[in-house]
Amino acid sequence: MDILLRAVCYPNNMWEEAIKTFFKDGVQRFSEGQVEPFEDFLYNKIPLVLRSTAPIVVWHEQDDVTKKYKYEFRLSFDNVTYMKPRIQEATGRLKQMLPYEARVRNFTYAAQMFVDIKFTARSYSGAGLLDMVEHSKVFEGISIGKIPVMLGSSLCVLKDFPVPLSDLGECTGDPFGYFVVHGSERIILSQEKVADNRSMVFFNKKTSSKFSHSVEMKSLHESFTMPPKKVEIRIQAKFNGLGFPLTICIPRFKEDIPLMVFFRAIGILSDKEIYDLVDDTVDDYLAASFKEAADMNIFTQETAIEYLSHHLQYPSTNEDKHGHIRSLLLSEFLPHVNLAGETLTHPVVIARKILILSGMLKKLIQTATGKRKIDDRDSYPNKRVVTTGALLTHLFRQLFQKVCKDIRSKLVHEINNDNWKRSGKPLEALTLSNLYKILKVSSIEGKMKQALATGNFTVQGLGTSNSTALSNATKSGVSQVLNRMSYSATLSHVRRIQTPVEKSGKLLAPRKLHGTSWGFVCPVETPEGHSVGIVKTMSLMTTVSGHVPSLVVTSLLKALTSVRWVNSVSSTGEVAILLNGVIIAHTENPVEVHSALRKAKITCRIHPHISIAWQILNKQIMVETDAGRLVRPVFRVENGKLLPPPASSNWNDWIKTCVEYIDPAESEVVRIAMMPDEITSVHTHCEIHPQMILGHMASTIPLSDHNQSPRNTYQSAMGKQAMCLYATNYQKRLDKNAYILCSSQRPLVETKMTRILNMQNMPFGENAIVAIACYSGYNQEDSVILNRNSLKRGFMRGLYYSLYKDEEHRNVVSGREERFAKPRQEATRGFKNTSYHAIGENGIPIRNSIVQENDVLIGKVVNMRSDPHGFQFKDLSTTHKSGEPCRVDGIWQNKNSDGYPFVKVRVVSERVPQIGDKVSSRHGQKGTVGMILDESDMPFTSSGLRPDIIMNPHAVPSRMTIAQLLETMYGRVGTRKGTIGDGTPYSHLKMEELSKQMAELGLHPYGNEMMYNGMTGEMMEVEIFVGSTFYQRLKHMVIDKSHSRSRGPIVSLTRQPCEGRARDGGLRVGEMERDCMLTHGASIFTKERLMDVSDPFETGICRNCGSLAMINDKDAIYECRVCSSKVGIETKTIPYAVKLWLQELEAMHISPRMMFGKE
């Protein structure tokens, strides 16, 4: 089919070619933000953790004279290698593991990890134990556990496999980027956090606080070997005569330190130097702080360090306390100033730290005096996204530290055995035989699986390590079950970002759509309710930057003559150059420096994701190479024109010629035109297309720029609930619940992104003839009327798949042995009063057999050792729970990882739309089926066209879903021309042109038709708007929600019916329902609802004192334990919850009494 295109002002459809090239590899491009960080975790972060955590050192046999040790043993880890996932059968046979098999057999798709372990033994002898002899040996290829493998990564079997994905049991459109843990698909959600190495000023709103304003920075070294070190400067709220003094809070010190004392401790002694560094006209804060230091009589570095030594959080055991303080100031205070790969002298390190500290102080004073605004922690330049790789690194570091502790304690035990001393060879203290005794590798493997399976990324027994500066909210719910409700839901889940705040919290700021998120986060797709604004989705072309070593930037800057490197505190210049938050240099020629850096970036001499932002007002050039920045591509503009695209279809060539990646910090300092016809001489960039600000779900809504924004948000949620072909391998999948639309169709109006992402191959609805009219009164309040004959022809017909599974268990100790079999009534205890017709003699169901509610699906029995009735077995069969008849569609039998046989049975039922089912257009116009009319009763046009759906016209004006009206008109033009309409948003659709095309085709210019009443044959009084609209059938169906109960299970505590349809629970009558019944005066009905059909309870009540009394009708015992009366005890029926409440009050020393009314 041809595409009905609209004129767009891009030369040669440049934007479409750019997007096609970007998504050349299909939807796998969406999972790059998952796969690339995982690759970095495997090949960079794990070796880094092994090197930084080890070596494990053990000293042995201390000399009494020298107090030195005679032996030193070291254990280090190196050379990490991996083996692709494999299955070891119970027979011992090894074979390659496919993800499909991992899902079916409940395996974890994991790769074996091997390391080389180097064991070094040093012996000290001679006078003063100064003679040292060193021996070492290497244990190569030692397994230290398994690492779950992300599908689509280099360790995945599917990567570059010569066989098509469909032949391997996979969906051909699978985005990958998830894990398979115990047969379940799990995905790790990216988490937002505050950026490290950035200073931010905040105002303290608490009136009782000790400080009013504060500036803080979380300093994280580029090597990621240490947790972030927080530095905070505070303005004290207490006036000291000259002003409000300043204090600083740094790690390893138990309380705030006066700021001027700290300045003197790091080498700034003179007041003038501090004034010059801050360079601020307001000196009240500094004067107050100088007075505080003078009152303490601290004017030299030595006295300042002496003061600090008395305020350590943990007192030093080192005799040289001053040396200990100096080492802490180097390691704990702003450790990020020493960039990776740099070898700096001590004065340069101190100079960088002083410049950062003075910059923080200046920022704080300017904010407190109203010269600048308070920093916005929700601004995207101040945020970073913690990806899968960073989260797994955080988890692996904790686990490996715990393993190293265990290894060290066991190594000490092995060395203390002294068996190696007999041979005089210290290396024999560790051999291959006892190496596996001290390696507790199962903890890494087990905890990694547990974290992915539960979403809890904390490690017990290791304190509260925050090595990635994540909040407690981030450490739970990190991984989730991959959403397979629909294909769109899966793609959206891979691109999701979560803000780690409490979903029940009332803070509005984190939930609002921030202006700096433009182009990086979808402004439409977010859930409704308590998660609104907390859960977000990345825009179509957004990706997350990885870490780039800062050395590539410093080596480039060294070639520039205008750059003056910071080597002392007095190093100044016109513009400061900041690299990852560190002032490394100054320049008098910022134009040259900025141009050189940008030229290197656009020619790919440095990584294209590096951020270069020249903040002219702040007089600084900020260069950032850290991981976690959201970046997106835009077209480059030079001399008021777009640069021409390359001839090749390689995305890297586009980056080198006409495309540049920018992050939120750069977005604030560049000029970006929305469309090419808006470009002027001042613009530096142009959007690839305005549609690229949307996420995947929102980009499939045709003409969404003509809808009210909440409607697009509703569709973004409902589109993920639409029945569709959710995976091409659905017949091989074993999902717990799955919905398939039998006759899904390609929409007559679609966006360009729908085609580029091949969504037309996996559509999520059908093209329906829709009339917007009031008809028969059964389509009020968002209900719709359906054509019964359309349903008979298969319109919106679906299939519902559900899964049942069971496995055999054996207990050798108790002799309990389960097996699949068809129970025999005469030999089986607990034989079910239902039908066993659907299973064979082996207990396995017969394919294509029909099962009703409570029919047995899987037959299983367990042997009984002794039974008073002589039964040999007990029935443990699995029954069909649903109330609708189903057909046995598929049976899978195999053995799990423990070697036990299991069976999985998939049943399918047909779902024909019925009254109460939910349908929706792509514009948030959702509704339930209110009536199904025969085709003869439906209205018809003069040409005999009868609608499939009639929706109410009152749904349009207030909701302003104009896009649905335009889609309907576009659909009519497309059906006449045999073309697909282009519904790409922000493409300047003109209503006049569309009306003109309709008139040329002989249609009403605005899509109206005269229709006739199908019931009376009379012509309707008004024209009806009718045409083709794409409709979705949602998963919400009456058959899944209908519920009733007479008697059933109760809660043991309150003896009231339990809650929930799945547990056959009762229907809740709450306060508002009670108030309605009381308003109507229906007292008997109220009593029936609240007690008679809930928790009636007969108890004795004493007439004398009104207390609960003890009654026993069988033995004629009636007694009140309170007043010891045995007469006047009456039996009354009260709710059991009331009886429980009375007893709970008595436990609180409140003694309620029940009074009897007059007879």
Automatic annotation (TrEMBL):
Residues 250-385, 480-544, 577-638, 1065-1155 form the RNA polymerase Rpb2 domain. Its EC number is 2.7.7.6. The keyword Transferase applies. Transmembrane segments: none annotated. Residues 33-419 form the RNA polymerase beta subunit protrusion domain. Gene3D superfamilies: 2.40.50.150, 3.90.1100.10, DNA-directed RNA polymerase, subunit 2, domain 6 (2.40.270.10), RNA polymerase alpha subunit dimerisation domain (3.90.1800.10). Belongs to the RNA polymerase beta chain family. This is DNA-directed RNA polymerase. It comes from viral metagenome. The lineage of its organism: unclassified sequences, metagenomes, organismal metagenomes.
